[in-house]
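Supplementary material to the annual report.
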Amino acid sequence: PTVVFHQPDSPPDVVEGKAGTSLMRAAVENNVRGIVGECGGQAMCATCHVYVHPEYLDELEPIGEDEDEMLEDTAAPRLDRSRLGCQVALDDALPEIHVDVPPTQV
Ligand code: FES
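Predicted assembly:
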């Protein structure tokens, strides 16, 4: 699936992720700026925070309990469309997804 990371102050990064991996993984493997993934995908750091474009929200698995807790601890404000990138699975059923990278992760 294609993941488009919209950057706050530069053109978007368009990357290809592997189905079955996470949106965070796709970012880190392609050196997308602003997605850190410090805990390696354990829902324990919130440095993979993204704002999912609204039209894709319903296509994703619901927010899990750990994710919900960690989203309370993001560096940039939590919005209704906030998700942890490591908890968003890429799936061929959704060939393209757009997210905004928050202005800060620390
Ligand atoms: Fe740490 Fe997602 S990589 S919470």
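Residues 24, 37-39, 41-48, 70, 84-86 surround FE2/S2 (inorganic) cluster (CB under 6 Å).
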